[in-house]
Amino acid sequence: MFKAKFKAKIIAVLLFMGLVGLCGMRAIGGPQSSAAQADHPAHETWRKEFDDVCSKTQDAMTFSQEELTDLIRRCDALLPQIKKLDESQKKVYMGRLRMCRGLYAYVLDAKRNEKK
Q: Could you tell me the residue ranges of all domains in the chain?
């Protein structure tokens, strides 16, 4: 019974994160044009890391505790770069990053409790 409820919660969180991700991309106008990215090489660096880290949420249940810990560390490392963005972008990316990190932390906690 507990496992069924846990799986249902995880599925609901993953679906919610997917919808938020789609809405977040639309809210900021989708990916920047190549000309805008050429002007901001630092933007592209953190953005690739952001996209890589947050693209793995659908597989969160399959990761080991070490992999989840690393993903959480990578989320934390992105915070300083995101804090430098303009207010509207900062709000979107901080929200998405918080949700990604929160999901990884939730799954990690569940896996630790499962081992007890």
A: 2-31+40-115
